[in-house]
Design a protein that fits this description.
Elements lengths: L2 E10 L3 H12 L5 E5 L20 H12 L17 H15 L2 E4 L2 E7 L2 E6 L2 E12 L3 E3 L15 E3 H10 L7 E5 L3 H12 L3 E6 L9 H10 L4 E2 L2 E7 L6 E6 L4 E5 L2 E4 L3 E3 L2 H5 L24 E3 L10 H21 L10
Parallel strand pairs: 1-2, 1-6, 2-3, 6-17, 8-15, 9-10, 9-15, 10-11
Antiparallel strand pairs: 4-5, 5-6, 7-16, 12-13, 13-14
Bound molecules: flavin-adenine dinucleotide (FAD).
The site of flavin-adenine dinucleotide (FAD) has 39 residues, from helix 1, strand 2, strand 4, helix 4 and helix 5.
Length: 350
């Protein structure tokens, strides 16, 4: 038996984008705003990013928006502003801001399927529910493609992570990782993985990328190479993971075909994000072929009336300050829709 309820706005995902939208909507007094989060803790990805650098641009986003939106109460969010803070602090500030504004943020609740155009079925330790909303906001974030999706052959020995899995294992669960790692990727998230490995006491044998150069800020790449002594192997592809009881090496092919083998007991696949579009697909929300998230217009409207998508769910992957600003802008669009009921007949892709 499902317990059935109605709310005004249902937001799926309590990362920065969903929480910012919730704060904006609740502060504007749109009624019952409820956020569902499948994890035990709200806050999204920043919960397990223990490095700094979160929110540095939020203040600029806020000041740019307050003149435009007409929403009241956004100044309650200034706790998120400043030169940047650690991920967990940033996540907590977002959760506090949404709750202070009056949104209900529920954790341990997963939206599993649709029972109507704006009706979602959920599951949680408290049981099954069916929630119908006047508007639904998909803020389900993005995930890194795991090793299997990258078609890297080899055994299924333990010791293989994505950055998100690594950060959760280290920062949320305090698990032992290994002794010597290879990091696959050289974009900003790969450098976050290096930080996490360092904190976990894991040496890094090398960073490997098929590209000709890294794609991070020059100071980060130089710091890893010169300060921490991590070699960056460019133009090299991982061709196989070796090991049975545990990963023992990765096999590489350098540009030009020269093979190599790097001994290690841990491999971290970084970057290569895909919007978490599973729920959108189940609801028949058309996807954008470019972003692989729901196709949206400039007001975050999908092609299903009353259903919006925001943050990395719509376009992997942006800095937290950017998706926060999007969440606030989405709140304005949702509120306008609730007041007018207007939905364009064709939603233009952006
Ligand atoms: C390793 C790493 C390091 C990063 N470092 C930085 C940095 O230093 N600075 C910076 O600005 N940005 C950084 N980012 C980017 C930043 O974390 C993201 O831009 C931001 O978290 C995106 O917010 P979001 O709300 O769109 O998605 P997310 O933060 O991914 O939140 C989505 C939430 O939705 C939940 N969810 C998904 N599906 C369901 C469902 N069906 N039911 C219920 N809940 C659901 C998920 O559990 C998740 O909590 C980093 C990202 C990563 C992965």
């Amino acid at each position: 038996m499902r317990h059935e309820r109605t709310v005004d706005v249902l937001i799926v995902g309590a990362g920065p984008a969903g929480l910012a939208a919730a704060a904006g909507l609740a502060a504007a007094g749109v009624g019952h705003v409820e956020v569902l989060e499948r994890e035990e803790q709200a806050g999204g990805v920043p919960r397990h990013c223990h490095h700094g650098g979160f929110g540095a641009r939020t203040f600029a986003g806020l000041t740019g928006l307050t003149g435009l939106t007409g929403l009241t109460g956004l100044t309650g969010l200034t706790g998120l502003t400043g030169p940047g803070t650690s991920g967990p602090r940033y996540a907590r500030a977002h959760v506090d801001a949404a709750r202070r504004a009056g949104a209900r943020v529920r954790t341990g609740v997963t939206a599993t399927d649709w029972a109507g155009p704006r009706t979602l079925d959920t599951t949680s330790p408290d049981g099954l529910e069916r929630l119908t909303a006047r508007a639904v906001v998909l803020a389900t974030g993005a995930r890194e493609r795991p090793r299997a999706a990258r078609l890297v052959p080899g055994g299924r020995a333990p010791g293989v992570y994505t950055t998100g899995e690594l950060q959760q294992a280290v920062h949320l669960y305090g698990q032992h990782i290994g002794t010597r790692a290879v990091v696959v990727g050289a974009e900003p998230v790969a450098y976050a993985a290096l930080d996490t490995l360092r904190r976990a006491g894991v040496a890094v044998a090398a960073q490997v990328t098929a590209e000709a150069r890294h794609r991070a800020e020059p100071w980060r790449a130089a710091g890893a190479r010169l300060w921490h002594g991590v070699p960056l192997l460019t133009g090299a592809e991982v061709t196989e993971l070796v090991g049975r009881g545990r990963i023992s090496a990765v096999r590489l092919r350098h540009r030009g075909g020269r093979p190599a083998q790097l001994p290690c007991d841990t491999v971290v696949f970084t970057g290569d994000f895909v919007p978490d579009h599973e729920l959108a697909r189940r609801g028949g929300v058309p996807l954008d072929r470019g972003t692989r998230g729901p196709a949206i217009d400039a007001d975050f409207r999908t092609e299903i009336p009353g259903v919006f998508a925001v943050g990395n769910a719509a376009h992997a992957v942006e800095p937290a300050a950017a998706v926060t600003a999007e969440g606030w802008r989405a709140a304005v669009s949702v509120r306008r829709y609730l007041l007018s009921g207007h939905w364009p007949s064709v939603v233009r892709e952006v």
